[in-house]
């Protein structure tokens, strides 16, 4: 990992190429916007009718924003979708980390909402993204009109041995060997054997680069 970056070697180039290619698979226009916040410059993907009810969608851990957005594509037919690249995670936002243990993620979201003059909104997110929404719920619950949390991080751990066997051990073996066998085992467990090959490749590159 280079100084001042979350990436190793040519990781940023690889991940942003995946990012841009993923957007090209969408069958609707996506606007790219940067917003300066107290926690760093934030890049957002915006789609859907301008008059639509707003919804913020937050990316899951170890993936990229367009991948998460692809799981919620039907929402863009009706809602005005705001999908930020999480600060300190793969994407185009600032690479400085934000602690998930205090109010900083909540304040970051509030600044984004204030920028777009949004008083309250719907929210959706899987895993780490759902955990971010929980931070908002803890500090600014009035900002949430409704929410969908998919396997949210930060509530309760599942069976530890199962997590070690199906996720942690294959992750360690993949990072040490680059074997696709271990990547497949881990991502199958994460997705109940339903992950697209494109998504699997991206997660492998995120973990390895």
Tell me roughly what share of residues is in helical segments: 40-55%
Radius of gyration: 17 Å
Largest sheet: 6 strands, mixed
Distance between the termini: 8 Å
Number of E-state strands:
6
Q: What is the count of DSSP helices, taking H or I runs of 4+ residues?
A: 7
SSE order, as H and E?
Answer: HEEEHEHEHEHHH
Structural class: alpha/beta
Give the low-pLDDT segments.
none
Overall morphology: globular
The amount of beta strand, in percent, is 15-25%
In round numbers, the mean pLDDT is 89
Biggest sheet strand order reads 1-2-4-3-5-6
Q: How would you sum up this structure, described in words?
A:
This protein has 209 residues and is α/β, with parallel strands linked by helices. The protein is 41% helix and 18% strand. It contains 7 helices and 6 strands; from the N terminus they run H-E-E-E-H-E-H-E-H-E-H-H-H. Strands 1-2-4-3-5-6 form a 6-stranded mixed beta sheet. Strand 5, helix 4 and strand 6 form a beta-alpha-beta unit. The longest helix has 18 residues, at 160-177. 31% of the residues are buried.
